[in-house]
Amino acid sequence: MTWFIERPDRFIAEKKAVAALAGEVDWLSAYDFMLDGRDRLLLRFTVLAGGASIPLELRYPRFYPDAPPEVVPLDPDLRLADHQWAGGSLCLEHRADNWRPEVTGAVMIRSAHTLLDAEATTPGGAQALPAVHDLTLGQLLRGDTFRHLYSVELIELLSGFAPSVPTMATMRYQSQAETIVSWIDTVQSPGGTWRQSGFPEGSRALHGVVMWIPDGASASRLLDRTASDLPLRLAAQAQGSEVGPNDARFVFVASSDRPRMVWRVLGDDQQLIPVIPLPVGDRGMWRAATNPASLPRKRVAIVGCGSAGSKIATTLARAGVGGFLLIDDDVLMRQNLVRNDLDWHGVGEHKVHALGTRLKLIDPDVAVTARPIRLVGQEASSSVDTALEALAGCDLIVDATANADAFNLLSAVATRSRRPLVWLEVFEGGLGGMVARHRPGVDASPQDMRSAYLSWCRDLNAPWTGVEEGDYASRDADGHVFVADDAEVGVIANHAARFALDALTDGHTFPHPMYVIGLRARWIFNEPFVVRPIDVPVGDAGDEHPLTEEVRDAAIEFLDELLAKRGDEDPPP
C-alpha cells in the first residue's frame, strides 16, 4: 500500500506545507506534484541559490513518513554540491541517521536551498562549510573495487628499511563478488624472505615492489597514476630482482601517515590503478576476551565432520584453538549443504579436507591434520592404529559421529590416554539433543556416563512412539514427519562447543557433565528450550586390571628379552 493512500491526511498536509513555503519565500518557484512510472510521489521545484535557478526533484519513498525523502538535481548528470552523494542525492540536515516522521517535504526543500546557497555564497565554498558526515568504512568503500589488506607487522618491517629504496615482494589476491582483495605475502628483506603471517595461502600471486617513504606527500608524488611503467622501473632498481620485464604489477609504499598503493592491472598497462589500503586489524581483537592465551597451543580431534562436527570445529577455530585432527571417511555432497557448515566449494571432496580448508580460511595459522578414514570400518589395522595414536596425543577428543561403535573406541582412547572427551546427540525430528563431557579424574568414565544416560531415558516412562526416518528425521504416530534443520543442529553443536572450550581450559562453567536440551514441545518436553541436567556419580576408579607380583615380574622379564633383541633386528618397513 502506498503511503499517500494509507495516510491521506499527511498527503494533504504535504501539499499545504509546500504551498505555504512558496508564499513565504521568494527563492522557491515552479513547484509541481506528480507520480512517476512506479507510482511514487514526486515534487519538482526550482530554487534560486547564489543567483542561479536550479531545478530539483524531491522523491517521496514508499514508506514515508517513516523513511526520509531525497532531493536530487532534475538533471541526473549535474553535480551541484560537494555535499552530494554519488547517486546525486543532496546530503541535507535531515537524513536516514536522524530522520523524524514529523519532518515534511517543505522542510527538505528549505534545507536544500540553505545548502546550495551557502556553497555558492560562502568564501571558500563547500570546504568552508561544516561537515556532518560520519560514514562507516563500508559506506566509504562502496565505490572502490580494488582493496589491499595490510598488517601492523608489515608497516613495522618496512619502516626499518632505507627510505626510498625499492624491495621486491609478492602479493596474493582473490576476486570476490564485487571486489578484488589483495595482501602482501612475502618481502625480500635484508635478513631473508619475510612472510606476512595470518593471511591465507593458495591464492593467485603477483610480483611487485614495496618501499618506505616517510613523507606522505613525497609518496603521493611518486605514485603518479599516469606513470604506468613505475612498477617496472622500481623493480629494475631493486637488488637481486629476478622479475621479468613485464612481471612487476604493483607498488606498495608505507609512510608516516598512511600506506599508499597502485596496481598495473592485468590486461590494461596504460594507467596505474589506485588501490585502497585497509588495516586488517589486530588478530587478537576477534578472540573472545574470556578465552585464555593457551588455546592456540591446544590440539582438538574432531571425529565425524558432518553437520555437527563441522560446526563445532569452526566454532573452536574462531575461539582460538590452534590445531585440529580431523577424522571422517565421508565425502561432502550437495544434500549435505542443508546442515553442514561447508558450502559448494567443498562438494565432491572428502569432508576432512574441505573442513580443513575452511578452518585455515578462518585462521590461516591453524594447523590441520586430515585423515579420511573410518575408525570402525574396513580399514587397514595400521591406519587405524596410527589414527588412534594421533587421537591420544590431542588435548581433547570430540565424538560427533553419533555412532555407538565409534563412541566405544573413542571412550577407550580417552580413558587410556587420560584425555577429555565431548560427545553429543541430535535427536531425530529436531526434538533437541544431548551434550556430554568427560574430564579424567573429575567426571565419571564415558561408558558409565553413557549407561547413566540410557538408564535416565528408560526411567522417564515416556517412550518415543515415533519412527526414525534417518537423516535427522522422524515420523510421529499420525504420520507427520519432523526434520532437524540447520538451526536445531547448530544449537546442540554450539552447546557441545562450549563444553569443549570449558574442558580445554580446565574451566568449571558447567556443574553437570550431561545436559538434555529440548527444542520442541514433544516427547518429554512440554515447551522448547527446556534443559534437564544429568548427574553421574564418580565411582571408585580402582584398577581395572589388578596386577599380581608374579604377573608383573613375568612382564618385566619378557620386555627385557624384547629390548635385547631390538638392537639385533632391523625394524619392518
UniProtKB/TrEMBL annotation:
Q: What organism is this sequence from?
A: Methylobacterium terricola
Biological process terms from the Gene Ontology for this record are: cyclic threonylcarbamoyladenosine biosynthetic process
Domain THIF-type NAD/FAD binding fold: residue ranges: 295-427
Note the InterPro entries from the entry: FAD/NAD-bd_sf, ThiF/MoeB/HesA, ThiF_NAD_FAD-bd, Ubiquitin-activating_enz, UBQ-conjugating_enzyme/RWD
> Which GO molecular function annotations are given, in alphabetical order?
tRNA threonylcarbamoyladenosine dehydratase; ubiquitin-like modifier activating enzyme activity
Indicate what this protein is called per its UniProt record. Answer: THIF-type NAD/FAD binding fold domain-containing protein
